[in-house]
Design brief:
The chain is built from twelve helices and 15 strands. The strands form four sheets. It has a seven-stranded mixed beta sheet, sandwiched between helices. Strand 6 and strand 7 form a beta hairpin. Helix 1 packs across helix 8 and helix 2 runs parallel beside helix 8. The radius of gyration is 21 Å and the shape is globular. By secondary structure, it is of the alpha/beta class. Helices cover about 40% and strands about 15% of the residues.
């Protein structure tokens, strides 16, 4: 059996007719930029997330950056971010001209730790970015209290968490604004790049709409220095088709995660994802932690099973930040996660037999690694 880390083939086969029809609608419309498909997707995605506004943009990084710019966060301001995340979270703050203040994570969830955030707040703090990493919502109660008490914006990075809920409310509706990515491998993925900002803040929504299109609301009149970051009409049409399947696909991801949990429980040296009764995760990734990562990953490869590491270098260890004070950040839990996390295959079209095949290979490798370490 060959089990890739991720595959879109089965999903696109299932959706082939609908995606083809969507493409034909756009081609026939003669409206290719900010047309009716984008407007409809923005309305339907806003309703799905439970917010008043969704603004389609070019990608998830732009979504985060435009939120910060829309809130006038820039030079002289500090933004608190998790130490363990995809580098885009940090790059958005850099692109806005603000100062990154990293906070360490909780090793049970890999999400930002509220205690570390509390310790990092200063009079210059303007925002906290809560990343719902791996599709698991951040416990937002204390973060929301901290944000309210200090008068700072709580921003969600929901790039991996489309459809997840915290205490019954969907991510994307829990902070001042949220950033989504529609990269093809996301739970809601386009057939190319795409992103969105969601918010209930009318003024912020208007500002982001203006900024995404050259800072203009009226053709050839540019109120401010914006960018060109618009969700493509064709991608919006594809996303409309995929949005109708999102809850069903997320439910299947949940079944796969539970099956992994059953088949991998009790293995020595292997830490499985913890469960949060307040959160409904959507399992963008299924991530285990082990000191024998290299051995297990090699064994999986020999069995034709794909795996990846999310992420092998935390942002403060990246060359992009090596010549900044951030390179000296003390984030021991983020460093430990980077050394030990391993992502197993997770895509909703996987069969139970494929999940069992992966789990059996992990079990064999973990037991052999434990035996070798004991000798």
């Amino acid at each position: 059996m060959n089990v890739p880390f991720f595959s879109l083939g089965r999903q696109h086969k299932e959706l082939g007719h609908d995606l083809g029809a969507a493409a034909k609608r756009v081609i026939a419309s003669d409206s290719l930029i900010l047309g009716p498909q984008t407007a409809r997707f923005e309305a339907e995605f806003a309703a799905y997330c439970g917010v008043r506004h969704a603004i389609g943009v070019g990608n998830g990084l732009d979504a985060l950056t435009l939120i910060l710019r829309g809130l006038d966060i820039g030079p002289g301001d500090e933004v608190i971010v998790p130490g363990h995340t995809f580098v885009a979270t940090w790059l958005a703050v850099t692109h806005a001209g603000a100062t990154i203040v990293p906070a360490d994570i909780d090793l049970g969830t890999y999400n930002i730790d509220a205690g570390a955030v509390a310790a990092a707040i200063t009079p210059r703090t303007r925002a906290i970015i809560a990343v719902h990493l791996y599709g698991r919502p951040v416990a937002l109660d204390r973060l929301a209290d901290l944000a309210a008490a200090h008068g700072v914006a709580l921003i969600e990075d929901a790039a991996q968490a489309h459809g997840a809920t915290w205490r019954g409310r969907r991510v994307g509706s829990l902070g001042r604004a949220a950033a989504f990515s529609f990269y093809p491998t996301k739970n809601l993925g386009a057939l190319g790049d795409g992103g969105a900002v969601t918010t209930n803040d009318v003024a912020l929504a208007e500002r982001v709409r203006r900024l995404r299109s050259y800072g203009s609301e009226k053709k050839y009149c540019h109120e401010e220095q914006g960018v060109n970051s618009r969700l493509d009409e064709l991608q919006a049409a594809f996303l409309l088709e995929k949005l109708t399947l999102l809850d069903r696909k997320n439910a299947r991801r949940g079944e796969i995660a539970r099956l992994y949990g059953q088949l991998l429980s009790g293995l020595p040296g292997l830490t499985l994802p913890s469960m949060d009764v307040d959160a409904e995760a959507v399992w963008h990734l299924y991530v285990v932690r082990t000191t024998g990562r290299a051995t297990i990953q090699q064994a999986l490869a020999q069995d034709c099973i794909g795996s990846l590491i999310h992420y092998p270098l935390p942002p403060h260890r990246q060359p992009a930040y090596s010549r900044t004070p951030l390179a000296n950040a003390r984030l021991p839990r983020s460093d430990l996660a980077a050394e030990q996390v391993l992502s197993l295959p997770m895509w909703p079209e996987m069969t139970d037999d494929e999940v069992a095949f992966v789990a059996a290979a992990v079990r064999r490798a973990a037991i052999e690694e434990c035996s070798s370490a004991a000798e």
